Amino acid sequence: MNDWLLAPTLQGRTLRLESLSEVHAARLLRHLDEETTRYLSRGAPADLSVESVAGYLRALNAVPNRVNWAVVTNDGDVAGRISYSEVRPADRWVEIGTMLTTPFRGTTVNPEAKLLLLERAFEVLGANRVHFKVDSRNERSLRAMAKLGAVREGTLRRYQVRPDGFARDSVMFSILAEEWPAVREGLRERVDAALR
Questions:
Q1: Burial 31-53 (b: 16+ CB within 10 A, else e)
Q2: Mean pLDDT value of segment 73-81
Q3: Per the confidence metrics, is the pTM higher than 0.90?
Q4: Could you tell me which residue ranges the N-acetyltransferase domain spans (predicted)?
Q5: Beta pairing partners, 141
Q6: Where are the beta strands (DSSP E) in 12-112?
Q7: Please, are residues 98 and 82 in contact by the beta-carbon 8 Å criterion?
Q8: Topology adopted by domain 2-195
Q9: Mean pLDDT value of segment 5-33
Q10: Residue 66 pLDDT > 70, yes or no?
């Protein structure tokens, strides 16, 4: 069960996922903006400084039952972070949360990062389910979930109070183990198409 809370380096074709730490703050800050952090459930760094971003990353790593990776492109850019934002080994599920900076949207980064974490969840850890919660106001992420092939389960109304006091509605999506092969194929096709 402890394997569920480890963050091994996961190598893809265009990027790798490596354990998130303060050393990623300066490279993450290069592309970080308000658009990237607007809908994050745990809020954003206090300001766009290396110290503030490092503090934000420390706070994420201190959250219990959470495993965080930096999304590092093959040329060394930090495109964002991706997490098992909640891990429940006894129930055999994880939740995935993603924050990608603006320049990397619409590239291979999102499908490949998701592919790596979903492969780990279903094929290494033996998860029955992976789910995602999206702020109901975040149209871009809602479209991304549909493109991923995740099933929309419903809306958790006023589910979480953000640090700014706003009680957000979260739209729940999931992928079950038996749905994973089709989702995996779709993600692989998206990465392949982008690399042609």
A1: bbeeebbebbbbebbeeeeeebb
A2: 95
A3: yes
A4: 15-178
A5: none
A6: 15-19, 67-73, 78-88, 93-100
A7: yes
A8: Aminopeptidase (3.40.630)
A9: 95
A10: yes
